[in-house]
Recover the amino acids of this structure.
């Protein structure tokens, strides 16, 4: 109960879901303590350098840090290969804990080099512990969880920065008070405790998931632990990681330039009590960043996606540089420094970490090590070199220096924006790669894997064996003609039938296995046989003889005549399409016997004559000939698009036929076919929507170049979403009223179908493969693959679609989903009436 | 191709030898020979293919033309001892439905008696 109460309170501010409360707070306090400890150390670092050596040493210490960090990264990599992640983090904390006491001890000697070493140490402190925190977060969360919760963790860090800064300010007794290191050591002790709790939680969660058989992607301990060279090679090899690294470089070079501008402007415009000024500024900055993080970061990502969130930081800085370029005053310096730090702590940190989420755990870990621990410092080194070059011109006017630095920064920011746009594109690709296709369209799979025509022919051949030796011979001939009379098939066909067969020439195929072999040997060139038969059938005398025979058979109404009609229906298929005998096929297409009709349909398919199309279309109505008629019509291809469209749009036509025609048009699959289907879909009758949408989906899956009317799809999607909302509410009511399980199951199935229809519509205007993957992963994926699917849609769909579709797929509780459905339903109805 | 005619009761039997090909057309065709027999009042014709090695579509055309001529005059034309290969061709072309085909000459002759 208490837990639920806490969850209710926090879920109003932060989107924490049940079950996430504990780990969210553990991570919040982890970062809080790391940053608080650092913000106690930071004033000592700055004060000691500025007081004892002066600000001109800043570029030098930036450079020194960049150089030394390479060794630290190498050492860190070597250690982490040998020990677990938990031990690595714990040892790091212990190392910095002990270092605090050592620096306090050394400070007593008044050694002049100590501020430089302390500066470098302080930077290593924050790089190592901060990086380890984000690696831990990456191990635990998927992209959706990260988007929701990162703002909360960052708020913890900002709050830690504020508290650390305030404590440092309150407790500092001297200009440079190394005694504050005891406070940092205390905070680190608490931090070690939280790290222990986090890893214990993670272990338990993994055990639970394994027990439930839900084990998804293992994001933590099994990840390999690379060395520095390996990390460097990984980043070098992958375009996406190179892009992230390049963005980090530009971000930090610009940030270093801003820091320099800030110091120089403050130094020139503010007299006395600089430490106090910096302290108040830092505290104010933290408060601003805190609210920015908690109120804006998550919403920004959620609402505007990765691209806009990533672009916000450089664009704001671009505006700020324009400001300080025009007026080099304290206010513009405060604005630019405030913007830089607050955005760097909040949106930029989250955006950067989010970019890493779709990267595979192994690559991610290597890249984070390299980027956060090396590129980060290296970039500051570059910034320092840029500053040294600017200062080397010997310009005395500080305003001029600030303007030159601003100009350099603006140029860098343009590069940063270009890289950001490319990275956001690559991010979506990386998310796509996390999703795999679960299944193919069944009809396409069957077509791909099976030669349906051949299978049917084999079965018909076997079936005809006991019915009529002539029919059987025709089938065997057809198999030969198609070159499918393999030795295995010959053996199968040569097997004696269970039933007794007459011992005569007419039965030699059935009774004499060698006959088939012999026949095949004689006709090893099947073209000879084919040619001979064609020639016979084109003889005038043949036509005379067979015409009469056909008329006799047609006038015979006895039961026995069915087999004869089947033979003729089959035999007509061997005739040339211009043979006068072909005219007779019409009567067989309308025969009372479905068996006769089936053979007639097959012959019509071979002959491909337009006059048979109406009869074939009518055969779609009969379930016994439906699939044969469909297949026959499909073989006509684009020639009959118009006539099919007439039947599709004819409201007087039987519904079953119109639905089947939609499917045939899908197989035809040209632009005209899709336009006709789309036209029918636009009529808003609704009764054939599923078939029409399925037909369009098939066309889309096979011919991505075909275009569809977005306007119609948009309208239809809204209708379908509305229907889904209605159905979902019906389902919720059935649940709450405890209706029969059967009814609930039916509605649940309908919901799945309804969802599939919505995604098929989306697939018509968005990349089909991506939409299919997203749908399939939402339907059947693990927790992570569902999250990646939603993330992909988040980055792909337009806002208007996202607003209506996300309530259906977002990972929220059933009750929340019902509430959102009701709300969105009202919104949709309002929009419709307006 | 060689064709020898002989009579047994009221049945005229044509013993055909060799190959019936378009390329080997002679002055006197099978159809002509059958028509000659029809002209002299014979109505029961049996074509014996025992020694036929090959027959092409021209040959089938000859058989069918003979069949039509006989049939139109109320006669009967039957076939005996055709090869398995030709039988397959007749089956595929549905000619087995029109032509009466027998494994043995004797059987064919007996069948004339029943007509």
């Amino acid at each position: 109960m208490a837990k639920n109460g806490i969850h209710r309170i926090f879920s109003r501010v932060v989107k924490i879901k049940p079950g996430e409360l504990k780990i969210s707070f553990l991570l919040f306090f982890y970062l809080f303590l790391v940053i608080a400890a650092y913000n106690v150390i930071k004033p000592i670092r700055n004060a000691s350098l500025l007081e004892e050596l002066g600000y001109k040493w800043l570029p030098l210490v930036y450079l020194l840090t960049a150089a030394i960090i390479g060794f630290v990264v190498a050492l860190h990599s070597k250690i982490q290969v040998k020990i677990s992640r938990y031990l690595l983090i714990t040892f790091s904390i212990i190392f910095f804990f002990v270092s605090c006491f050592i620096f306090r001890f050394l400070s007593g000697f008044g050694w002049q080099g100590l501020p430089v070493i302390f500066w470098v140490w302080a930077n290593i402190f924050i790089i190592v512990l901060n990086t380890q925190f984000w690696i831990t977060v990456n191990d635990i969360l998927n992209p959706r969880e990260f988007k929701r919760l990162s703002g909360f963790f960052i708020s913890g860090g900002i709050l830690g920065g504020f508290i650390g800064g305030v404590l440092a300010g309150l407790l500092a007794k001297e200009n440079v008070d190394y005694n504050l290191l005891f406070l940092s050591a205390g905070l680190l002790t608490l931090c070690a405790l939280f790290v222990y709790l986090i890893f214990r939680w993670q272990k338990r969660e993994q055990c639970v998931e394994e027990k439930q058989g839900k084990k998804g992607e293992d994001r933590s301990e099994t990840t390999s632990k690379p060395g520095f060279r390996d990390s460097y090679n990984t980043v070098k090899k992958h375009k996406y990681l190179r892009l992230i690294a390049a963005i980090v470089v530009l971000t930090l070079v610009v940030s270093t330039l801003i820091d320099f501008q800030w110091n120089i402007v403050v130094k020139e415009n503010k007299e006395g009590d600089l430490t106090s000024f910096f302290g108040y500024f830092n505290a104010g900055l933290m408060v601003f960043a805190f609210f920015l993080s908690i109120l804006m970061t998550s919403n920004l990502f959620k609402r505007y996606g990765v691209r806009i969130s990533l672009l916000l930081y450089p664009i704001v800085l671009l505006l700020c540089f324009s400001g300080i370029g025009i007026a080099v005053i304290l206010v513009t310096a405060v604005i630019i420094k405030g913007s830089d730090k607050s955005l760097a702590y909040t949106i930029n940190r989250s955006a950067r970490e989010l970019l890493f989420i779709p990267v595979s755990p192994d690559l991610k870990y290597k890249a984070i090590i390299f980027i956060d621990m090396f590129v980060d410092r290296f970039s500051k080194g570059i910034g320092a070199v840029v500053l040294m070059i600017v200062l080397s011109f010997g310009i005395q006017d500080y305003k001029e220096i600030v303007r030159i630095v601003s100009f350099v920064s603006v140029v860098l920011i343009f590069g940063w924006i270009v890289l950001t746009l490319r990275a956001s594109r690559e991010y979506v690709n990386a998310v796509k790669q996390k999703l795999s296709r679960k299944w193919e369209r069944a009809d396409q799979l069957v077509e791909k894997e099976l030669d349906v025509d051949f299978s049917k022919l084999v079965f018909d051949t076997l079936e005809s064996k006991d019915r009529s030796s002539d029919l059987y011979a025709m089938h065997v001939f057809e198999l030969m003609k198609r070159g499918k009379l393999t030795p295995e098939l010959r053996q199968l066909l040569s097997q004696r039938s269970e039933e007794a067969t007459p011992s005569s020439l007419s039965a030699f195929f059935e009774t004499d296995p060698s006959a088939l072999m012999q026949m095949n040997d004689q006709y090893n060139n099947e073209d000879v046989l084919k040619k001979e038969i064609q020639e016979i059938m084109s003889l005038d005398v043949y036509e005379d003889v067979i015409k009469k025979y056909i008329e006799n058979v047609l006038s015979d109404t006895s039961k026995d005549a069915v087999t004869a009609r089947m033979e003729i229906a089959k035999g007509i298929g061997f005739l040339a399409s211009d043979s006068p005998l072909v005219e007779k096929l019409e009567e067989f297409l309308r025969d009372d016997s479905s068996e006769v009709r089936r053979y007639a349909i097959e012959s019509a398919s071979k002959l491909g004559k337009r006059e048979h199309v109406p009869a074939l279309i009518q055969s779609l109505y009969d379930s016994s000939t439906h699939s044969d008629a469909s297949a026959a019509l499909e073989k006509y291809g684009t020639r009959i698009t118009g006539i099919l469209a007439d039947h599709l749009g004819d409201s007087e036509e039987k519904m079953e036929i119109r639905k089947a025609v939609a499917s045939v048009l899908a197989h035809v699959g040209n632009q005209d076919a899709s336009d006709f289907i789309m036209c029918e879909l636009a009529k808003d009758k609704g009764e054939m929507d599923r078939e029409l949408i399925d037909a369009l989906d098939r066309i889309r899956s096979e011919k991505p170049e075909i275009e569809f009317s977005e306007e119609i799809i948009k309208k239809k999607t809204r209708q379908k979403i509305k229907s889904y909302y209605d159905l979902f509410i019906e389902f919720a009511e059935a649940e709450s009223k405890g209706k029969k399980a059967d009814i609930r199951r039916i509605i649940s199935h309908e919901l799945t179908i309804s969802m599939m229809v919505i995604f098929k519509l989306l697939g018509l205007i968005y990349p089909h493969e991506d939409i299919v993957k997203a749908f399939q992963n939402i339907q059947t994926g693990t927790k992570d693959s569902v999250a990646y699917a939603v993330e992909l849609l988040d980055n792909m769909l337009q806002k208007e679609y996202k607003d209506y579709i996300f309530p259906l797929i977002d990972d929220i509780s059933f009750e929340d989903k019902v509430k959102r459905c009701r709300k969105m339903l009202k919104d949709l109805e309002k929009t419709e009436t307006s | 191709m060689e064709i020898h005619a002989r009579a047994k009761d009221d049945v005229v039997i044509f013993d055909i030898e060799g190959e019936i090909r378009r390329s080997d057309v002679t002055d006197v065709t099978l159809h002509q020979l059958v028509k000659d027999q029809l002209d002299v009042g014979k109505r029961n014709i049996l074509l014996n293919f025992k020694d036929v090695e090959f027959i092409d579509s021209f040959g089938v055309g000859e058989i069918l033309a003979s069949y039509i001529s006989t049939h139109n005059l109320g006669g009967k034309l039957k076939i005996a001892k055709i090869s398995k290969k030709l039988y397959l061709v007749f089956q595929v072309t549905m000619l087995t439905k029109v032509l009466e085909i027998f494994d043995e000459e004797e059987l064919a002759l007996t069948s004339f008696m029943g007509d």
Chain B touches chain A at residues 56-57, 60-61, 64-65, 67-68, 82, 84-85, 87-89, 91-98, 101-103 (CB under 8 Å). The helical segments of chain B are 30-39, 57-72, 84-92, 105-114.
